[in-house]
Design brief:
Layout lengths: L1 E5 L4 E2 L17 E6 L2 E2 L2 E2 L4 E8 L4 E6 L1 E4 L4 E6 L9 E10 L5 E7 L2 E3 L13 H16 L6 E5 L2 H7 L8 E4 L6 E5 L3 E6 L29 E4 L7 E4 L21 H6 L4 E5 L2 E3 L6 E4 L2 E4 L5 E4 L2 E5 L9 E7 L5 E4 L17 E8 L11 E3 L11 H4 L3 E2 L2 E5 L7 E6 L5 E6 L8 E7 L5 E5 L2 E4 L11 E10 L4 E11 L1
Parallel strand pairs: 1-3, 2-11, 13-14, 30-32, 31-33, 32-34, 35-37
Antiparallel strand pairs: 1-2, 3-9, 4-5, 6-7, 6-10, 8-9, 10-11, 10-12, 14-15, 15-16, 17-18, 19-22, 20-21, 21-24, 22-23, 25-26, 25-27, 27-28, 29-30, 33-36, 34-35, 36-37
Length: 497
């Protein structure tokens, strides 16, 4: 018996089965429902289906899973009416339910009520004859015999695993699918159909467990700014301690340019150009080479490169017709290079290659393959050192005390003289903690002791305070150490003034 489901109204046309069922029947009548493949954006062929019947008279509800088959144009559902739907006579409200794999209801269709016709032999107890009693007992036994009991045959992690393991299931076989409870139950009705998750009611909350014992925690006592430290190798052996300068341990001697920035080098990298040397000269007997003295450069990239002297840097041959301007420069990796320009009636100097540092320009007369001193133009641009700014950054002595306010200073490289043997006090204020180190250049023309103070903090000298000896120049680095709140001082070995 075929029934069309009107999806426009989501209704079941139940007229043809309105009085079909008789009380006590089981698996006699087969009803076929036909649905379209889609409803709006919902793929109806992907859903599982069941039918639910509700008896308003007895206030009971029964549900039965439907077999499904899909053709190219429709979804076909088969309902073999079980005894659960014919157990109680009277009006029965039917609802067709479509669910997804998780067991969630996606769509419902209802219809006009159908009626289960009463079997007079079991309709009631008005006549309590022995024969009626026996018929009632038989009816009850029949219901018990056909009662659907859920029996789970096994558990698999995924539906694919179930399909692979159970190759030939029987109609009604049920299995759990999932990695842990609650599982999704699948039943075989010609294909595996999800019944959703079977869960009981939530149980009562359990009683609270016994409180655990307190942990060791932090030891009592201690004062402000103290630290927690291990007192021994035993578990939980801790105590409070006030940090001192000695807690940092012995400090190894530092090497300028390795452990910290050499003060002279630091002052040079503020700009780019020639740091030293690099003179380009003609040979004693002029020829087609030039000599370049050793030196060092700071490239536009901020890198410092020393370069060796070149006794005879070869030049390209002169043009036969026109004058040419060539240049000698140092590459950004410290290589001395000769670059020929373009010969012309009015020649121009070639551009210096990117990140190169020019040393000289050489005018090459036509057909002249000797380079004289008069042909060489010095193009070196020297970097000014911090010591060249004594008038700007010098610290002035006043009653043997040197005071310097570092606020708003652009440079931290300072220079001042020691001119007599009287003990000196050097004081810095408004020190920019953590912003940069302080680099000092001191020229001593007399031997004197110095007391150093930075914002009221005495400087700690791990390798000993410098002894300023007459006739020497000292590079000194002062750094703030946040770990112990101290200023740390390092002095580079003095060189002759």
């Amino acid at each position: 018996m075929n029934i069309t489901v009107n999806m426009d109204k989501k209704s079941i046309q139940t007229e043809s089965i309105k009085h079909l069922m008789i009380q006590g029947e089981a698996l006699v009548d087969v009803v076929l429902f036909t649905l379209p493949l889609e409803y709006g954006d919902i793929d109806l062929s992907a859903l599982s289906y069941s039918i639910r019947g509700t008896s308003e008279e007895s206030e009971t509800t029964v549900t039965q899973v439907l077999s499904k088959s899909v053709t190219g144009t429709a979804v076909n559902l088969e309902w073999v009416i079980s005894s659960a739907f014919t157990a109680i006579p009277g009006e029965l409200k039917l609802i067709l339910i479509g669910s997804d794999e998780a067991g969630d209801t996606i769509i419902k269709c209802d219809g006009e009520s159908v009626y289960v016709r009463a079997d007079p032999s079991v309709a009631g107890f008005a006549v309590a004859s022995a024969n009626a009693y026996e018929q009632l007992v038989a009816q009850i036994n029949y219901q018990i015999a056909h009662l659907q009991v859920i029996r789970i045959l096994g558990t698999y992690a995924t539906l694919s695993a179930l399909e692979a393991a159970v190759a030939s299931p029987s109609n009604g076989d049920m299995y759990n699918v999932g990695s842990s409870a609650p599982y999704t139950v699948y039943v075989w009705t010609g294909s595996w159909v999800s019944l959703g998750q079977l869960k009981g009611d939530t149980g009562d909350p359990g009683t609270n467990g016994t409180n655990g014992t307190d942990g060791v925690g932090v030891p009592t006592g201690g004062t402000t700014n103290q630290i927690l430290y291990k007192t021994s190798g035993a578990d939980h052996a801790t105590g409070w301690k006030t940090l001192t300068a000695g807690d940092a341990g012995a400090q190894p001697a530092m090497t300028a340019g390795v452990d910290y920035v050499d003060p002279t080098a630091a002052s040079q990298i503020a700009s780019c150009g020639i740091a030293s040397g690099g003179a380009v000269t003609a040979q004693g007997t002029p020829n087609q080479t030039v000599a370049v003295s050793a030196g060092s450069i700071i490239t536009p990239e901020g890198k410092r490169y020393p370069f060796s002297a070149v006794s005879a840097l070869a030049a390209a041959a002169a043009d036969a017709t026109y004058t040419r301007i060539d240049i000698v420069y140092v590459t950004n990796t410290g290589v001395v290079t000769y670059l020929a320009g373009t010969a012309a009636a009015t020649p121009s100097q070639p551009a210096t290659p990117a990140n190169g540092t020019i040393l000289a320009a050489i005018t090459r007369a036509a057909n002249d393959n000797t380079i004289a001193t008069s042909d060489i133009g010095d193009r070196r641009v020297f970097i000014l050192l911090a010591s060249d700014f004594v008038d700007v950054y010098a610290v002035t002595e006043s009653s043997n005390t040197f005071a310097c306010d570092l606020a708003f200073k652009r440079a931290r490289c300072l220079s001042f003289p020691i001119t007599n043997t009287t003990a000196k006090t050097v004081t810095f204020s408004n020190v920019p903690y953590g912003a940069c180190d302080i680099l000092l250049n001191i020229k001593a023309t007399a031997t004197a002791s110095v007391t150093w103070t930075l914002d009221g903090r005495t400087v700690v000298w791990p390798s000993g305070a410098p002894a300023l000896t007459s006739g020497s120049t000292y590079d000194i680095l002062l750094s703030f150490c946040p770990a112990n709140g101290k200023w740390i001082g390092r002095a580079q070995a003095g060189a002759a003034n």
